[in-house]
């Protein structure tokens, strides 16, 4: 059974930091592209960041560039991280981890597997 399990969400003040983790199990994700997306109330799910299976390529939404960093560890199981610094109230959303075969893309519809999401709330 394929599972992507996110952790690390919570409540933080503006300017603070959080680190999200996503553990992928149930099949090998070591060669999968991995991404983070978020969805705020009343809004569509949007791309945040993605990383290639070799970690050689990473892409970010303009809104998080310079503040968020995506990384991954393929040691035993694939774990993907999202380090979020200088958080803003507009970063408040449910954050989802996702995986796909092949190259990085930004469209959520192209991802094959999804986690259940973790809530991030940034207070002003």
Count of separate DSSP helical elements: 0
Mean pLDDT score: 95
Rg, Cα atoms, Å: 13 Å
Distance between the termini: 40 Å
Number of strands: 11
The coarse silhouette is: globular
Could you state the oligomeric state of the chains shown?
single chain
Parts with pLDDT < 50 across at least 5 consecutive residues: none
Query: What percent of residues are in strands?
Result: over 45%
Structural class: mainly beta
Helix content: under 10%
Order of helices and strands: EEEEEEEEEEE
| Major pleated sheet | 7 strands, mixed
Please tell me about this protein's structure.
The structure is a single chain. This protein is an all-beta fold and 124 residues long. The chain is 0% helix and 50% strand. The protein contains no helices and eleven strands. The strands form two sheets. Strands 2, 4, 5, 6, 9, 10 and 11 form a seven-stranded mixed beta sheet that branches. A hairpin with a 6-residue loop joins strand 4 and strand 5.
């Amino acid at each position: 059974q394929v599972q992507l399990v996110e952790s690390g969400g919570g409540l933080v003040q503006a300017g603070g930091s959080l680190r999200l983790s996503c553990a992928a199990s149930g099949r090998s994700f070591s060669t999968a592209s991995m991404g983070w997306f978020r969805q705020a109330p009343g809004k569509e799910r949007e791309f945040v960041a993605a990383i290639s299976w070799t970690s050689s390529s990473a892409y970010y939404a303009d809104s998080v560039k310079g503040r968020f960093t995506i990384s991954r560890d393929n040691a035993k199981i694939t774990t993907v991280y999202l380090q979020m610094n200088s958080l803003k109230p507009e970063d408040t959303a449910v954050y989802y981890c996702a995986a796909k075969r092949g190259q990085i893309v930004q469209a959520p519809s192209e991802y094959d597997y999804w986690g259940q999401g973790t809530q991030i709330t940034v207070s002003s």
